[in-house]
Write a structure and sequence with these properties.
By secondary structure, the protein is an alpha+beta fold. It is built from three helices and three strands. It has a single domain, classed as YefM-like domain (YefM-like fold, 3-Layer(aba) Sandwich).
Length: 76
Amino acid sequence: MSKVNITELRRNLPAYLSRVRKSEEIRVAVHGKVIARIVPEQDAAQAARKRLIALRKHARVGDVLTPSGDSWDAER
């Protein structure tokens, strides 16, 4: 992952886009502060799978079909 100033990016956009095509992430900075990232596009299914794997570390799978006994009003 490399960091590039916006002016440098404008001057050499084709070269930076070529690097992104090769799976490199480019961070775009203005006055030294990163404001954006240019990342290679991922397959939607693959990206969703990666996100679910990451969520497994923080989520707990439970029974969502058994009634909890709490009343629920759909009009609220």
